[in-house]
Amino acid sequence: ILCNFATSNRTLCHSLAHWISGPFLHYVNDFEAQSLKDIEHLIQPIADFVIFIQDNSLTQQSKQELFNQILYHSNSSSVSELVERLHLLEITNTNEITSICSKIILNQPKAVKDYLIGKRRVIRYFVKMGSQTSNNRIKESTLIECFSQLLSDIKDKQSL
Q1: Who contacts 70 (Cβ-Cβ below 8 Å, separation ≥6)?
Q2: CB-based contact 90:138 (threshold 8 Å)
Q3: Whether 125 contacts 111, CB under 8 Å
Q4: Of 61, 64, 138, which Cα lies nearest the Cα of 99?
Q5: 3-state DSSP call for residue 73?
Q6: How many other C-beta atoms lie within 10 A of the C-beta of residue 4?
Q7: Helix or strand or coil: residue 38?
Q8: Which residues pair with 58 in a beta bridge?
């Protein structure tokens, strides 16, 4: 499975190899694995993980958390069960994202005021709040876009 995946999707494969190798080597070191026999129980879960992330929306942080869960807490749970239990699936519903961002804006009047007087860097603060609120389940670029639009709408209403 992994060999077929690697030849069919080189870009994703390189990306995976970059951030999977570190945690995997830590795991091997932590458990003092001496041979492939010591880690063979991970082969199928890792293959399932690669297939799952290829077909589903997960943020980078969620992928890393899921991979660590597979390494250190691998049991009878399937990858999809782990994702469900850990609430890792990316939030992509526009209405849900807008609702989250709107609530954050309503609860941060000082930051909104700072934005309105020209402090554009406050967007980073809002994005951080959005990431925390969603448990890193919304892509940063999506949060930037949503907060920018909502704050721009507020600014437009004030200038009327």
Answers
A1: 42, 45, 46, 49, 79, 82
A2: yes
A3: yes
A4: 138
A5: coil
A6: 8
A7: helix
A8: 89
Instruction: Determine the Cα–Cα distance for residues 74 and 51; give it in Å rounded to an integer.
Output: 17
Q: By C-alpha distance, which of 18, 64, 26, 73 is closest to 45? A: 73
pTM of the model: 0.69
Determine contact, residues 50/5, Cβ cutoff 8 Å: yes
Closest CA to 109 of 88, 126, 91, 87: 126
Q: What is the rounded distance in angstroms from the CA atom of residue 147 to the CA atom of residue 109?
A: 14
Tokens of 33: 């694995």
Residue entry with tokens 């001496």: 34
pLDDT for residue 83: 86
**76-120, pLDDT tens digit by residue?**
678 888 888 888 888 999 999 999 999 999 999 999 999 999 999
